[in-house]
Design a protein that fits this description.
The structure holds two protein chains of two kinds.
Chain A lengths: L4 E3 L2 E4 L5 E6 L6 E8 L3 E9 L2 E5 L6 E5 L5 E5 L8 E8 L7 E3 L3 E5 L1
Parallel strand pairs in A: 2-11
Antiparallel strand pairs in A: 1-3, 3-8, 4-5, 4-9, 5-6, 7-8, 9-10, 9-11
Chain B lengths: L2 E3 L4 E5 L4 E3 L2 E3 L5 E8 L6 E7 L7 E2 L2 E6 L4 E6 L8 E9 L9 E2 L3 E6 L1
Parallel strand pairs in B: 2-12
Antiparallel strand pairs in B: 1-4, 3-9, 5-6, 5-10, 7-8, 8-9, 10-11, 10-12
The chains are: A mainly beta, B mainly beta.
């Protein structure tokens, strides 16, 4: 099976712009989670989508949003970018069973200037 | 809320030697999963090993094994016969088994492992 894929891999934006990141899960996985990784805050959970519904949400401002499509692909959007949004954004997918493990994509590195 | 703590920001080991990375966690739940992930310079997060809390037997995957102490809320990772390719940042992670928690992982701060030739 192909792994989790994320596009784009690298992105440079300026303050005030918005950005959309994409994640394609492993085939058959219906859960997609997003994480933000920064040197200062470490790995933080953003949100999870399951069958096109947001199932869980971390403690991030409303500028961070997401959605999931019927094919389980997910997008994450950040509006009105701030310098502090510069980070590695990781996507992970998981199968349906309770004991299923999450597998991560390669990440999208976002730099906000 | 659950928390995960890795008290060793950096560790080093000689090639072919054994090293143990520490992790403690805090939870009021009895059913959960614990994981060790590895993040090499490529930044790809790779699952190393997992442990179900209801299992008393410690998980083992080739050169990687864990020491799971549920009462002490401790979950250490032992790497035997260390190889240069083991050099990476290692993260300990917790996931609740409750359905309402979904797939959410809580991560520790990470331990940077250096392997010296």
């Amino acid at each position: 099976k192909a792994g989790v894929t994320q596009t784009p891999r690298y992105l440079i934006k300026t303050r005030g712009q918005q950005v959309t990141l994409s994640c394609s899960p492993i085939s058959g996985h219906r859960s997609v989670s997003w994480y933000q990784q920064t040197p200062g805050q470490g790995l933080q959970f953003l949100f999870e989508y399951f069958s096109e519904t947001q199932r869980n949400k971390g403690n991030f401002p409303g500028r961070f949003s997401g959605r999931q499509f019927s094919n389980s692909r997910s997008e994450m959007n950040v509006s009105t970018l701030e310098l502090g949004d510069s980070a590695l954004y990781l996507c992970a997918s998981r199968g349906t069973g309770k004991q299923e493990t999450q597998y991560f994509g390669p990440g999208t590195r976002l730099l906000v200037l | 809320a659950q928390t995960v703590t890795q008290s060793q920001p950096e560790m080093s080991v000689q090639e072919a030697e054994t090293v143990t990375l520490s992790c403690t966690y805090d939870t009021s739940e009895s059913d959960y999963y614990l994981f060790w992930y590895k993040q090499p310079p490529s930044r790809q997060m790779i699952l190393v090993i997992r442990q179900e809390a209801y299992k008393q037997q410690n998980a083992t995957e080739n050169r990687f094994s864990v020491n799971f102490q549920k009462a002490a809320k401790s979950f250490s990772l032992k790497i035997s016969d260390s190889q240069l390719g083991d050099a990476a940042m290692y993260f300990c992670a917790y996931r609740s088994a409750r359905e309402t928690s979904g797939s959410r992982l809580t991560f520790g701060e990470g331990t940077q492992l250096t392997v010296n030739p």
